[in-house]
Amino acid sequence: MRYAVLGTGIVGRTVADRLVSLGHDVVIGTRDPGATLARAEYAEWQEAHPQVALAPFADAARHGDVLVNATGGQVSVAALTEADAAHLDGKVLIDIANPLDFSRGFPPTLDPVDDDSLGELLQRTFPGLRVVKTLNTMNCRVMVDPARVPGEHTVFLSGEDADAKKSVRELLYSFGWPEASVLDLGGIESARGTEMLLPIWLRLMGTLGHADFNFHIQGATAAAGD
Amino acid sequence: MRYAVLGTGIVGRTVADRLVSLGHDVVIGTRDPGATLARAEYAEWQEAHPQVALAPFADAARHGDVLVNATGGQVSVAALTEADAAHLDGKVLIDIANPLDFSRGFPPTLDPVDDDSLGELLQRTFPGLRVVKTLNTMNCRVMVDPARVPGEHTVFLSGEDADAKKSVRELLYSFGWPEASVLDLGGIESARGTEMLLPIWLRLMGTLGHADFNFHIQGATAAAGD
């Protein structure tokens, strides 16, 4: 499958690496490839991953059958606007970003929050996309290798398009997520709930001193008769 | 121990019932006892719990060595204002409420949210209280009987006063919480994180069709050396 991973930070690189290891054809999208390659950290990663091309957002989006939003939540709309609506139409966008706002320091707040979410904002702004919010509630190494955290734990799905969610489920299974760990919360509105896990996630990371943890919904069995 | 449970809804009654069953001396506080007893649901519960007195907020607060805030989050400041600062000074307030705002319908939003929390608001408004935020991330029947949800799951603690948190820990153990399930997030500021679990909690209840579930932090072991 051809993927476009939008965003060149640790999250985008970690997902791109995993997709390549599963045999997918991956292009990473960025605003300015020259500027990205001038970052030592990216250049080093690029050298270790010669099979991953780096391209402007529009070229990456044209390449991808499926898009992954791994940009910072405050710049996701701008990135997808650069990607060009013609390259988005009908495609699945796996939105793993969070609308973290660091403008007031650490810990960040969220914007939007509570009566809106980044997932909804993207679906509303780019109606041709089929947005599936998932994986945004954990560290990126856990996203692509759930066995890093021992025991059962949960990955949530939110989105309007059943076929899109089905295809994202298959990708999650290929990352190592057991079927029982995937919890479909319903429509994209439910992304409000998963994005609002970030504040406690950040405080847990501080308290525990590491990021190899995840939320598990204990007792998450549907009521009898469902 | 003498407890004042502020709030006459299902949460307050469930906690009061459990405290009585553990041998504590409990008074429930309300704005207007006559109006509360005129509610058939409360009158019925009162009849089954003759050992629990119902009193105005101030009388209940005077009675309690420890206070439990089980009022609606939008009226908690008003309730504690009626309770009278003289009856609050130096006491532990176990804040199990959430600032749910139903003014725009269901699902509710939160107010305050993100850059403030009900726990902080109460600590700031009533500096004589030692506020401990806990138990607000689950259904009230799970609060007082964690075994309703099979397996390990988590109850969070937030607060500024170490002695107050220690005494609340003891109460949680007496409710049936294993020591390993109590996760101290730090100061009262961390209540932002636990209160912001409510949006996903409400959506999970809708998806699962029941309330016998809880969050578990899988992998919540402190880093080596801590």
Automatic annotation (TrEMBL), chains A, B:
Q: Does Oxidoreductase show up as a keyword for this record?
A: yes
- Domain of life the protein comes from: Bacteria
Q: SUPFAM superfamilies, from UniProt?
A: NAD(P)-binding Rossmann-fold domains
Q: Recite the UniProt keywords alphabetically.
A: Oxidoreductase
Q: Which InterPro entries match?
A: NAD(P)-bd_dom_sf, P5C_Rdtase_cat_N, STEAP_metalloreductase
Pyrroline-5-carboxylate reductase catalytic N-terminal domain: which residues? 3-99
Q: Which Pfam families match?
A: F420_oxidored
For whether the record's keyword set contains Iron, the answer is: no
Checking Gene3D superfamilies in the record gives:
NAD(P)-binding Rossmann-like Domain
Query: Which GO molecular-function terms appear in the entry?
Result: oxidoreductase activity
Which PANTHER family does the annotation name? DUDULIN-RELATED
Identify this protein by name: NADP oxidoreductase
Q: What species was this sequence derived from?
A: Streptomyces roseus
